[in-house]
Write a structure and sequence with these properties.
The structure is a single chain. By secondary structure, the chain is α/β, with parallel strands linked by helices. The N and C termini lie far apart (37 Å). Helix 3 packs parallel to helix 4 and helix 4 runs parallel beside helix 6. It has one domain: Rossmann fold. Helix 4 links the parallel strand 4 and strand 5. A 7-stranded parallel sheet has the order 3-2-1-4-5-6-7, with helices on both faces. 47% of the residues are buried.
């Protein structure tokens, strides 16, 4: 039986970290028949990540704040497999700050990666995305909806909220071409992005017992959501924010 993404090609940003959402998404997409381009900074070694996933993956050094790097990633997909069907804009970073502590440099760094990076990567892939079945999946955050409370400062919350607005604008603009744009808002997900050491992790796990589902999330929970939004299972879904938070925030 063919997978949900059989013979389709996806670009996934922020996909180098072994325990990250991007890597889990790449692995799941491959399991469902996709070819994937793993994009990340050189320090995260996307080449090694792709090698670990086999012949269905290639790794590209990509700074999502660079339009040239974004175009290189899109061209790599086209050169290797001749098509491009899905973009998962997952790359991000955060800082723990209060409003008065956010410097201009802090704001520029976080906003450039989270919001500008989502825009530049989408611009780069747009000419190549399959019309009639293309999918844009933008990873936002529960912090965008409730003003923090997971991790990250107010500039992170604002940038991730910007991703939600950008997603809706993309859905309106690209819908007539048969390209869908949706967002995921993860809650507390135990990845190497969110972990802060054994003691802090234990506190998070204990706190998550109060959630309706009684646990924090794992990277696969978000990968499953990306698979839904990137595949034909969501062929009549665009412009939505899919909250994946174990019931910790119910809107």
């Amino acid at each position: 039986m063919d997978g949900l993404l059989q013979d389709r090609v996806a670009i996934i940003t922020g996909a180098g970290r072994p325990q990250g959402i991007g890597r889990a998404t790449a692995q799941l997409f491959i399991a469902h028949g996709a070819k994937v381009v793993l994009c990340d900074l050189p320090a995260e070694d996307p080449g090694a990540a792709a090698e670990a996933l086999g012949d269905s993956a290639i790794g590209i050094h990509c700074d999502v704040t660079s339009a040239a790097d974004a175009r290189t990633a899109a061209e790599a997909a086209m050169d290797k497999w001749g098509r491009l069907d899905v973009i998962v804009n997952n790359a991000g970073l955060t800082q723990r700050r209060k409003v008065a502590e956010v410097t201009e440099a802090d704001y520029d760094l976080v906003t450039d990666v989270v919001l500008k990076g989502t825009l530049l990567m989408t611009q780069a892939v747009l000419p190549h995305l399959t019309r009639g079945a293309g999918a844009i999946v933008n990873v936002s955050s529960l912090s965008a909806l409730q003003g923090g409370g997971i991790f990250g400062g107010p500039h992170y919350c604002a940038a991730k909220a910007g991703v939600l607005g950008l997603t809706r604008a993309m859905a309106r603009e690209f819908g007539p071409e048969g390209i869908r744009a949706n967002a995921i808002a993860p809650g507390l997900i135990m990845t190497d992005f969110s972990r802060r050491g054994p003691e802090a992790d234990a506190g998070k796990i204990e706190a998550a017992k109060a959630y309706p589902l009684g646990r924090p999330g794992v990277a696969l929970d978000i990968a499953n959501a990306a698979l839904y939004l990137g595949s034909d299972l969501s062929s009549y879904v665009t412009g939505v924010t899919l909250n994946v938070n174990g019931g910790s925030f119910i809107a």
